[in-house]
Amino acid sequence: MLSMLILSLLLMPTMNAVEEKGNDHVIQSHEFLLPILNSEPRTENITHIVIHSISNIVAKPESPYNITDIYLLLLEYGLSTHYVIDREGTIFQFVSDDRVAYHAGRSSLPQAPFIDHSMNDFSIGIEIMGIGTKEEMTTFIPEKIFDSINPQHIGFTEKQYKSLQILIADLINRYPSIRHDRFHIIGHEDYAAGRKVDPGKLFNWKKINLE
């Protein structure tokens, strides 16, 4: 019990002295950096943003959105992402932009053959806490688990969309190779079609001014 308490204290996120403002929405960034082994030095220019959805629905369907649980989930599987946006729109940074996070895996984007199987090298990964449709989710969880989920946990929140808009605008400002279009800002399902379904049908691209 004591060791678990110590672990919890060590994993508590550290507040940055940074506030981002836009569209009358103020958010604070928190650093919650994964171990350095969960990323690697970046050598390529950042040209893309990949949007994912994430939850801890398998282990905790009644409480799928605890940020420490998400951190431990990525840690357990040797994965990582640059940013996580929680249900209240708070942005957590798990990996520094200047490092490659392990979020996109091996796949391809037909419009960009030069990044075949190497999207991680060229991209920023953003995980949004959310749960998809029943059809999407029951590919890896039993139907009865999905049916037990609080309906408020399904889909995405307005606060998340507002924070995502601000984060994308900031990234585009810092990395001009990213353009605000559906070629440079993609879903995981666009890159790994047939293998991944996130952010899924419930993600409204129009909320971030994309189609």
Automatic annotation (TrEMBL):
GO terms under biological process: cell wall organization; peptidoglycan catabolic process; peptidoglycan turnover
Q: Note the Pfam families from the entry.
A: Amidase_2
SUPFAM superfamilies tied to this protein: N-acetylmuramoyl-L-alanine amidase-like
Q: What class of enzyme is it?
A: hydrolase
As given in the record, the signal peptide range reads: 1-17
Q: Which reaction does it catalyse?
A: Hydrolyzes the link between N-acetylmuramoyl residues and L-amino acid residues in certain cell-wall glycopeptides
Assigned keywords, A-Z: Cell wall biogenesis/degradation, Hydrolase, Signal
Identify the SMART domains for this entry.
Ami_2
EC code(s) of this entry: 3.5.1.28
The family database entries (PANTHER family) matched by this protein are listed as: N-ACETYLMURAMOYL-L-ALANINE AMIDASE AMID (PTHR30417:SF1)
Protein name per Swiss-Prot or TrEMBL: N-acetylmuramoyl-L-alanine amidase
Recorded source organism is Ornithinibacillus halotolerans
Name of the coding gene:
ampD
